[in-house]
Amino acid sequence: MNRLANGEPKGNLSRRIIEIKGIVQGVGFRPFIFQIAKRYGLHGWVLNTSGGVLIEVEGEEESLHAFLDDLTMQLPPLARIETISVIEAEAAGYQDFKIRQSQAQLGEYISISPDVGTCAGCQRELMDITDHRYGYPFINCTNCGPRFSIITDIPYDRQYTSMQHFQMCDTCAQEYEDPDDRRFHAQPNACAQCGPLLNFIGGTPLQVINGDVIKLTVHALQEGKIVAVKGLGGFHLACDAADETAVTKLRLRKHRYGKAMAVMMKDLEQLARYCELSAAEEKLLMSPRRPIVILQQRKGAKLAPSVTQGLPTLGVMLPYTPLHFLLLANYQQPLVMTSGNISEEPLVSSNVEALEKLGGIADCFLMHNRDVINKIDDSLTRVIASREAVIRRARGYAPEPMLLPEQLPEILGCGPEQKNTFCLTRDNHAFVSQHIGDLDNLPTLEYYERMIAFYKQIFRINPRIVAYDLHPAYLSTQYAKSIGNVQLLGVQHHHAHIVSCMLENGITDQVIGIACDGTGFGTDGNLWGGEFLLADYRSFTRLGHFKYVRMPGGEKAIKEPYRMAYGYLYSLFGKGANAFPKYIESIEADELLLMEQQMYKHLYAPLTSSCARLFDAVSAIINIARIARYEGEAAIRLESIIDERVIDYYDFDLQEYILNPAPILQGVYDDLENDIAPSTIAAKFHNTLTNAITKVCREISNLTGVKKVCLSGGVFQNAYLLKGLVKHLTKEGFRVFWQQKVPANDGGISLGQVMIAHYNVSK
Fold it and tell me: Which residues are registered as beta bridge partners of 228?
């Protein structure tokens, strides 16, 4: 007869050995296991490993079944189980249930929780004058707070975070060791007696100013000053969102021209006074991820005009750290909260760096002494067609992995040049990095290389296959080619776009891929961007595209859409461009002569099929955006003026899947000559693209029989166009897929790269 350690018969006791992978560390998972084991009178143990969580539990069969049911059905808020392995075994004779010390395992890895917003429990304690953490700006528990931004290695234990420098006081240590406490093994656990603290630096010259730092910050904001505020993943630059002088000063100092800035609101009640809000948008704003959400402004909303620069939308977030809650509770008015960086450079994250780099922008600094290990910007998202569509994937989302439909070897996708992310794969996980930015300056390139090294270390990935964009001048491409002893594969930009969309939506068979964006290097050496593809994971066939036109001045035409408009008119109408005098005469004579020479001689005038450049041209012709101060401004402003009541559209010319926009531009110009409102022209233009792309899909489907359509590329962040296409294509019997979890813009390219590399190199 089997017996327990104390000599008593085991009876019908049995044991389960359970291994769980997923986001199961730093999220209250072990105390959760401890509690349900106690609930059913089970014995054994649980511990963290480098690969997940390992459990041995024994007891009556009925109790074990109930334990397993609760384990999967009643998870802590931030936990996510990806795989669970259960092995039956004989009882070992455990006398109680314990949480054991973490166990490192060579080569193993876990998914790491993103940083998450302050939970409701911590919010209550923060504002409760009777609580010992009342007003403490770093309050957290296992359900909330910093994760990725403070971690140096796995397993996720305090010694591998920037909290290792703070010795817990007796009260915090008792909470930390108590499995019944909400702060059991909450690695950032601390209080005012033992944890990180704030300080305020201001004055001329800058110096530490003693006193209530929140009140000092509020006073500075009331005086119209710009304050650099250290948050979870780095610094924000903050000022009063209703103070036009302060907002203008911030723009000038930061050299941020034209682009709208994000605003932080105190709560939903305050937000409702400024913006329209759907149930889906409210859910996003209140989620633990706490992203910036693009919302429609209410008419008459009293914010400084320079916040949005005339756009009808506003990027809004709610407080997501205890410090934010304290600041907004005391200030009571919306605050501009824009990234703390010099324009186009990575986020500033250290105190020393902030004083050095932001000293010429900020008047004062609200800092703390908890180090940011991994800088990470705010995520940006919006709701399109009732679903979330992520625009910038960062805090709250990364480094949560995308789950792949099959096992992949260790691959690195280096991503593109603009809106860069990289992607590393292992098993069925694709770790798409946080938003890195545009790789056109040394600080961003160094940040990119540093984060690749960190992801490789923390997820124990040593890629032997490296995928890169075909564009030879991209710094990400050059980085890939500098790596030794790996198999390299160049991946076409728009193929990667479509495969990224396929992966996210779980599609494994062939699709019609509509890839519309600004620039991507084509296999013929030209600049693509309006592509009609037949694609799968391995390859693609380019069936058609927007008709090629020339870009006078090359990249200069992207920043100066009036050049792009001329390029279209000259390319499509030749000398007939003179039939557009109202536009031609608006260009300086010297500039016009130069562009004519560039077009005629094909000098600094590359060919492009880009859909985004067509948006630029239309915006310039109707004088919405002749100059673009940031990427995509012309298209954003064109979308912003649409009169959604308009159902008319222009003629278009589609022959053998080549879309010739000449009739569209002729119609736009004629309407302008006839004093038709720009809002009507914008609507007709968008309606025309919807009709044209729908017709392309219909003709390709008639040829191939394919009825699945994937829409990808930055153009499909245009809500009006995307909604219109989904509606039209669905009505035509197509199944339409677009991106929600990774950006449709170039931030999703790296995900597509790794799967294409897998199918072309490792399979």
Answer: 237, 365
The β-bridge relationship of strands 708-712 and 511-521 is: parallel
Residue among 326, 708, 398 nearest 390 (CA): 398
Quote the CA–CA distance of 152 and 78 in Å, as a whole number: 20
What's CA 238's distance to the chain center, in Å? 21
Angle, vertex CA 640, rays to CA 287 and CA 613, nearest 5: 105
Q: How many CB atoms lie within 10 A of CB 73?
A: 7
pLDDT of residue 1: 30
- At 58, is the secondary structure helix, strand, or coil? strand
H or E stretch covering 494: helix 493-504
Residue-wise pLDDT for 712-746, tens only, equals 999 999 999 999 999 999 999 999 999 999 999 99
For the stretch 500-557, pLDDT in tens is 999 999 999 999 999 999 999 999 999 999 999 999 999 999 999 999 999 999 999 9
Measured between alpha carbons, how far is 248 from 229 in angstroms, rounded to an integer?
19
Q: How far apart are alpha carbons 478 and 471 in whole angstroms?
A: 9
φ/ψ region of 583 (left if φ > 0, alpha if ψ in -120 to 50, else beta) reads alpha
- Report DSSP state, residue 131: S
What is the rounded CA–CA span in Å between residue 89 and residue 86?
A: 10
Going by C-alpha positions, the residue among 116, 160, 188, 744 that lies closest to residue 395 is: 116
CB 133 within 8 A of CB 127: no
Say what percent of the chain tops pLDDT 70: 99
At position 678, the amino acid (one-letter code) is P
Ordered structural domains, the chain, with CATH: 14-99 (3.30.70.100), 198-380 (3.90.870.40), 401-493+743-763 (3.30.420.360), 544-737 (3.30.420.40)
Is residue 45 within 8 Å of residue 96, measured between CB atoms? no
Q: What is the DSSP letter of 619?
A: H
| pTM assigned to the model | 0.93
Q: Measured between alpha carbons, how far is residue 749 from residues 411, 624, 758 in Å? A: 14, 30, 15
589-648 tens-digit pLDDT = 999 999 999 999 999 999 999 999 999 999 999 999 999 999 999 999 999 999 999 999
Lookup: tokens for 598: 């560039």
Token pair listed for 498 = 């479509």
CB 699 within 8 A of CB 735: no
Residue with tokens 């041995």: 56
- Comparing 103 with 627, the larger pLDDT belongs to 627
The DSSP call for residue 664 is: H
Residue 411 pairs in a beta bridge with: 465
Q: Is 3 a residue whose pLDDT tops 50?
A: no
How many CB atoms neighbour CB 644 within 10 A?
A: 11
